[in-house]
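Data card: per-record layout.
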Amino acid sequence: MIVGAAVAVAHALRPMVAHAAAHQPARIRRVDIESGKGTVVAEVVLSDPGGVDSIGPITITPAGSRFAYSYIRTLSQLLLVCGLDER
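The structure for this 87-residue chain is written out next.
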């Protein structure tokens, strides 16, 4: 079973499904409606995946030739404080 959301329908009525979860890379699949079989046609790979929690939503053009996506990134800073008990 393919987990994801149908995000576009190509010209030949062949849905494209994007897995928009925390997994990287996010894979875009073309699904055959009759068999339910999916084929990966593209992967969303970020140049700097540091701190990325999830990719999505992914939007695909009706022809399936281009796509747009967003992602959530969480960055934090660790500070070390020394000498608080010395007065």
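Known properties of this structure: The chain has a mean pLDDT of 75. The CA atoms of residues 14 and 34 lie 10 Å apart.

See the next section for split statistics.
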